Amino acid sequence: MSTLMSEEVEERRHLTKIIAQVSRIGNYMLGRQFEREGLPISREQWDVLVMLWEKDGRAQQEFATFLLKNRASITSLIDNMEKNNLVTRVPNPNDKRSKLIYLTKKARDLKDKVIGIAEESILVITNDIPLDDVKKGVELLRKCLSNITEYEKNLSESK
């Protein structure tokens, strides 16, 4: 009886499957934690908030690039955040076609609470994993991301 995949490919498939599961379930867990605290913040909105807490007044394209989302998805994401009074759009003085996204007072005031919830979730997810192993995991996943990026770049160059 032949196997569909070699043992090596099967082990590598397990890695990619587990990466997807951890991402999906971790995102769900974080969203549920925000929900339990009565915070109108999704996992993707969390990423936007972190970016704005680091540097307020970013162009929407920066979020699209970081989150690997298209312009329509980012517009919808920002629309929802604006409805929840977390961000505001301001015309970009350097480019009349774009708007800059800024935090509202409400979002600035939520920073410590939201970061505390996220930190708790991260610690639950990585519980009992030595820091050295976490660092090796980050290195491994960066390599996977680099492989994907390089592969996609080569595909687009060959067209």
Order of the strands making up the biggest sheet: 1-3-2
Distance between the termini: 40 Å
Q: How many strand elements?
A: 3
Largest sheet: 3 strands, antiparallel
Number of domains: 1
Shape, per Cα inertia axes? globular
Tell me which CATH architecture applies here.
Orthogonal Bundle
Roughly what is the average pLDDT, rounded to an integer? 92
Topology as a string of helices (H) and strands (E):
HHEHHEEHH
Percent helix among the residues?
55-70%
Fourth CATH level, the homologous superfamily: Winged helix-like DNA-binding domain superfamily/Winged helix DNA-binding domain
CATH class: Mainly Alpha
Tell me the radius of gyration: 19 Å
Query: What class would the helix/strand composition place it in?
Result: mainly alpha
GO molecular function, one term: DNA binding
InterPro entries: HTH_MarR-typ, WH-like_DNA-bd_sf, WH_DNA-bd_sf
Keywords: DNA-binding, Transcription, Transcription regulation
Pfam family, one: MarR
How would you describe the overall organization of this protein?
The termini are far apart. A hairpin with a 2-residue loop joins strand 2 and strand 3. Helix 1 (7-36) packs across helix 5 (105-125) and helix 3 crosses helix 4 (71-83). The chain is mainly alpha-helical. The protein has one domain (7-127): Winged helix-like DNA-binding domain superfamily/Winged helix DNA-binding domain (Arc Repressor Mutant, subunit A, Orthogonal Bundle). The protein has a three-stranded antiparallel beta sheet. It has six helices and three strands. InterPro entries: HTH_MarR-typ, WH-like_DNA-bd_sf, WH_DNA-bd_sf. GO terms for molecular function: DNA binding; DNA-binding transcription factor activity. Pfam families: MarR (PF01047). Residues 12-146 form the HTH marR-type domain. This is MarR family transcriptional regulator.
